[in-house]
Amino acid sequence: MNRFLKRADQWATESGLDDEFPPPHRFPSTRADPRTPLELDLTSGQITTVLWATGFRPDHSWLEIPVRDRAGRIRHDGGVFGATGLYVLGLLVLRTRASTYIHGTATDTDALAGHLHAYLGHRCR
């Protein structure tokens, strides 16, 4: 993260934009437990399997209610299912592009909580 921010700051400086942005902020380094192995000896013969996971595809086939489209994706409007009282979070571009990322679920959660309160007849406080 800090390497990326340094490059972004350099770009801003080279582009003459330093006065248009706040001063740089840096995050503290991630601390690792000193006992955590940070290297593997791949020549020792102890590693016998390597599993390479490069992505995944969602599988909602276990849902036994009619909420999926022909491609198996969940039909929803901003996380609200067509089935009364059902909600979903964590899908790609649920409400906005930010929904795709962990920090983006915060606004999705707020919106769905508001919808749920309205559904239950309560006022949000």
Structure write-up:
The chain has 125 residues and is mainly alpha-helical. Among the domains are: 1-29; 76-120. The chain is built from two helices and two strands. Strands 1-2 form a two-stranded antiparallel sheet. Strand 1 and strand 2 form a beta hairpin.
List the helices and strands and how they pair.
Layout: H1 2-14, E1 76-77, E2 80-81, H2 105-120
Antiparallel strand pairs: 1-2
Counting helices, strands and paired strands, the structural category is mainly alpha
Provide the low-confidence segments as ranges.
none
Distance, first to last CA: 36 Å
Number of helices: 2
Sheet with the most strands, sense and barrel status = 2 strands, antiparallel
Average pLDDT level: 80
